[in-house]
Amino acid sequence: MGAPAVALVSIGDELLNGTSVNTNAAWLGRILASEGARVTRSVTVGDDPAGIVKAVQREAAESDAVICTGGLGPTEDDRTRNALARVVGRELRQDDSVVAWLRRRFESRGREMPASNLRQALFPEGAVVLANRLGSAPGFLAEGDDAVVVALPGPPAEMRAMSEEALLPLLRDRWAGRLAPVAHRVLRTTGVAESELADRLEEFGVQQGVALAYLPSTRGVDLHLRATDEPALEETAARVSAAVGENVYAEGGSDLVEVVAMALRERGWRLATAESCTGGLLAQRITAFAGSSDYFLGGLIAYSNEAKTALADVPAGVLEAHGAVSAEVAEALASGARARFGAEAGVGITGVAGPGGGTRDKPVGTVYVAARTPEADGVRVLRLVGDRAAIRERAAQAALDLLRRML
Fold first, then answer.
1. 278 vs 350: CA distance, rounded Å
2. Fewest CB atoms within 10 Å of the CB: 175, 209, 280, 287?
3. How many CA atoms are closer than 13 Å to the CA of 55, on its beta-carbon side?
4. Sequence-ordered list of residues with C-beta below 8 angstroms from that of 318, at least 6 positions apart, any chain
5. pLDDT, average across residues 40-57
6. Is the distance from CB of 87 to CB of 27 less than 8 angstroms?
7. Rounded CA gap, 383 and 22, in Å?
């Protein structure tokens, strides 16, 4: 019969009007795909009962299961349970054991249960109740004529816990023999464009049965490889990594900061930074990780020319001769950071983040990054694209990557 097909229906006006970001569908998609299910479609609808019914019926006609999130709260605008009861053709019935559980839950908090919470004890007749240990809204699984229909709560923490603890075990039993768990590898790259990666890998050819996807961001391109055959996946991942070369900085979810931190710790070196156009973004990224005090001494934000001279000891003559946005100033910032903090490694960044300030010779997106260590010096000129935020993000990533390659 092949892998079971699953459709996702996200419910809530707040998802349509932008008040809330829909992270549930992305999480469910990853989890279901890793289990070996085939996610065929993800749609979002508002809190309109007719719209919910129409969307679920449409997806049920082409799926083995329709998983809905949201609309299980105690208020009048939570309409999912009523709509799904219509889809499966069952009356809503009160589950007295759930009523008792709800009362105990409120009593344990020293409160009396509001009458409105009784809505959360209503389920389509014959449905399997899915326990919610983090909230007051149990979910349920109900048999429809075409597909299994599942209702999960909207709050992400509740939805994830219920999925892992209650829903997935049911689906594994139901689809025993149809699920082929999918192995997944991620190669993280930086300093190379998505199109260039595609050109490098076009002649390489991905082994049959292994899927390769490119996920670009301002920090680089993540290469996602999936396969049901783990040995084939491992072999392909190794070959892709070799083809991409030094642009691969990690496997899995490791951040570039973590890679640099490991190299610094191995040498017993400490790092200091001096930033202009990134305004402390690099230091913020470094200190976002616990334990950064082991290797990071501090950072300077030297935005004006006067600050570059006063804080990072950039010679006034260098600024006058080459301008604030130059390789020479980036190198002086890296040296100044090392000297100011007594660090073995120093990084300097200077550039034009925009949207104004560019010139013909140094247009917006021109950034110089430099790094200095006891073993090597390096400087790089970048021509970055995007808005101000993207240019700053890419500049910080490029500075980290330069230091990584030097280490």
1. 8
2. 209
3. 24
4. 326, 328, 329, 332
5. 97
6. no
7. 34
